Write a sequence for this structure.
């Protein structure tokens, strides 16, 4: 068809609409294909934020120079699907708290939310032990394939609290 005729304009217009529609469909397909990754990334960011919040709470709890088991248990309450407090160990003045935390992200399509769990150790050095204030160092335990319980896969024994020495 020749350009400039009524049939040519109609053909060119339909072709432009079809190309635009194809671009929109491909864009939606890519957006939908990456929705899971975006939701998991937001849940992991929430998990890191939860660990940093717990770090601040532990600093406050150990500011008096002592971190007892009940203070640690208050910082890490049990919950579903994360276990919360898993273990407390004492090595000299340091207290090592192992806990499983939960990160929540947006839902994907019809799902309500995206949940991820992570297993962390918090090494607490209470105030007055070579430090002006309490110090807490966070370490996330590596888990290759996140199962129902991240702390179990990371080689941490089942939940228990070791007695204070």
């Amino acid at each position: 068809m020749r350009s400039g005729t009524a049939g040519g304009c109609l053909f060119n217009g339909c072709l432009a609409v079809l190309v635009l529609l194809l671009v929109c469909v491909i864009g939606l397909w890519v957006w939908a294909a990456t929705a899971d990754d975006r939701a998991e990334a937001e849940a992991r960011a929430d998990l890191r934020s939860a660990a940093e919040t717990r770090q601040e709470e532990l600093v406050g709890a150990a500011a008096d120079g002592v971190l007892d088991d009940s203070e640690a248990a208050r910082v890490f309450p049990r919950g579903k699907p994360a276990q919360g407090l898993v273990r407390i160990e004492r090595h000299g003045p340091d207290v090592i708290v192992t806990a499983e935390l939960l990160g929540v992200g947006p839902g994907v399509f019809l799902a309500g939310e995206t949940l991820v769990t992570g297993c962390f150790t918090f090494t607490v050095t209470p105030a007055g032990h070579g430090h002006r204030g309490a110090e807490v160092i966070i370490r996330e335990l590596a888990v290759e394939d996140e199962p129902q319980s991240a702390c179990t896969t990371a080689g941490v024994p089942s939940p228990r609290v070791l007695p204070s020495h």
In short: Confidence is low (pLDDT under 50) at residues 157-165. Strands lie at 84-91, 94-106, 113-125, 135-140. The chain has four helices and four strands. The helical segments are 6-33, 35-61, 69-75, 150-153.
